[in-house]
Specification:
Blueprint lengths: L10 H44 L9 H32 L6 H33 L1 H9 L3 H8 L3 H12 L3 H26 L17 H32 L2
Helix pairs in contact: 1-2, 1-7, 1-8, 2-3, 2-5, 2-8, 3-4, 3-5, 3-6, 5-6, 7-8
């Protein structure tokens, strides 16, 4: 039986705990991961289909690409936030060996959606400003603010308090958090690249001489398959690191 440690742990132990929780919670998280992935890749799949259709329809205009993509990302991005909040709720209850049905976590995701939605836009604005200024501040903020959904879902904070608490949580542990959160992102990149090599469809950032429009529908589907494997580990790592930092900041 998995239990969260009552004392702060070395970095390697936090990563090991995240893998144990991943193994324990994978099936419980799978419905949320599935729909998260569907809504995550849907805008680009629809856009690619639209581009192919436009090539055979002179009535369509290239400028519609950007307009359509923004609209789709806004709509489907909202759905992604619901399922990500559900992922966090289900994961923390699994970590605490508490009973929580997927439906209950989904309802929590819906209830927390407005707060996650508002906080996400605040964070995106802060990160974009940081990237525009000197890049490094944007990278710093992307790590510093990543725990805001946890504070919203677990501690019932509002958007602004969740952002502030996320920053305070990692203020003296930025590098530690960066190292702990790095393995899931490395795995995601590796999984996507392996599928790209196996199936011959571009998945990651376009290579030289290609644009984002060259990524096929199959490429986006393969990306979705890789996300099914890696998103749960990202969430379990987020929960384990949150718990460890809470202990360190006592």
């Amino acid at each position: 039986m998995f239990t969260l440690s009552e004392q702060s742990q070395p970095i390697l132990n936090v990563i090991k705990d995240s893998l144990k929780l991943y193994k324990l919670a994978f099936l419980a998280l799978l419905p949320f991961t599935f729909f998260y992935t569907i809504f995550f890749i849907a805008p680009n799949v629809v856009l690619h289909t639209y581009i192919v259709f436009w090539k055979h329809n002179v009535m369509m205009q290239p400028k519609h690409y950007t307009h359509l993509l923004i609209l789709l990302q806004f709509i489907f991005g909202a759905c992604v936030m619901v399922f990500f909040a559900g992922l966090i709720d289900q994961c923390i209850h699994t970590a605490n060996n508490a009973i929580r049905t997927q439906w209950q976590s989904f309802v929590i995701g819906i209830r927390k959606f407005p707060f996650v939605f508002i906080a996400t836009w605040f964070c995106l604005i802060f990160i974009m400003i940081g990237l525009v200024l000197f890049i490094i501040p944007g990278i710093y903020l992307s790590i510093a603010l990543m725990f805001f959904p946890v504070f919203i879902v677990i501690e019932n904070n509002g958007p602004w308090n969740a952002i502030k608490k996320s920053y305070e949580l990692i203020r003296h542990h930025w590098w530690r958090t960066f190292v702990v959160m790095l393995p899931p992102f490395i795995l995601q990149a590796a999984a996507a690249k392996i599928m790209e090599l196996l199936f011959g469809h571009p998945i990651l950032l376009p290579t030289i001489g290609h644009s984002i429009h060259d990524i096929s529908t199959m490429g986006h589907i393969l990306l979705g398959i890789s996300l099914l494997i890696t998103i749960p580990w990202t969430v379990t790592t987020l929960i384990c690191q949150y718990h460890d930092l809470k202990l360190r900041n006592k």
